[in-house]
Amino acid sequence: MLPLFEEAHPADPRPRDALEAADAFAAGGRRTNILRQRAWAAYRAAQDATSPAAVDAARAASHAAAAAYLHPKASAHQVKHILGAAAHAARAEELACGEEQPVTAGTLGWARLHAPAAVTAVLGRLPAAPPGGGRMGELLRDLDAALRD
């Protein structure tokens, strides 16, 4: 999904920086203030984006970096934090290809196949994804249900 953002905003490094920080954390790096700052910067990039696909691409990057900051409260809202990166990536792809094309199945399928066991373990301790949220909510609930199967 990053190319969808960078095509629209080639001079804005914030989503790429957030993904690099998320990758470093996922590889065993520490949860640092820089990771948090980059998550927020990608969120601001989404607010500044000029196309719907770029907005969701930047939100995906923001969620990827922010996932390190889950809190222990067992609420359905936490599911959004855990699965938000994949759901926003799927929505960005869907918007870029035209909403009439069902491209999200491949993106969400990839996310399901590559989700670490820790993700499914955490989801198992949380309520299901909350209702509402329009199309993003649908994508989130689809992925949540697939990971809980």
Radius of gyration computed on alpha carbons: 14 Å
How many strand units? 0
Shape: globular
- The total of helices stands at 8
The average pLDDT is 90
Structural class: mainly alpha
Report low-confidence residues grouped into runs of 5 or more: none
Order of helices and strands: HHHHHHHH
Helix content: over 70%
End-to-end Cα distance, whole Å, is 26 Å
Tell me the major beta sheet.
none
Count up the domains.
Answer: 1
Strand content: under 5%
Domain Imm-5-like: 1-99
Protein name: Imm-5-like domain-containing protein
Pfam families: Imm5_like
InterPro entries: Imm5-like
Summarize this structure as a short list of keywords or feature phrases:
149 residues, mainly alpha, 8 helices, globular
Kindly summarize this structure in a few lines.
The chain has 149 residues and is an all-alpha fold. It is built from 8 helices and no strands.
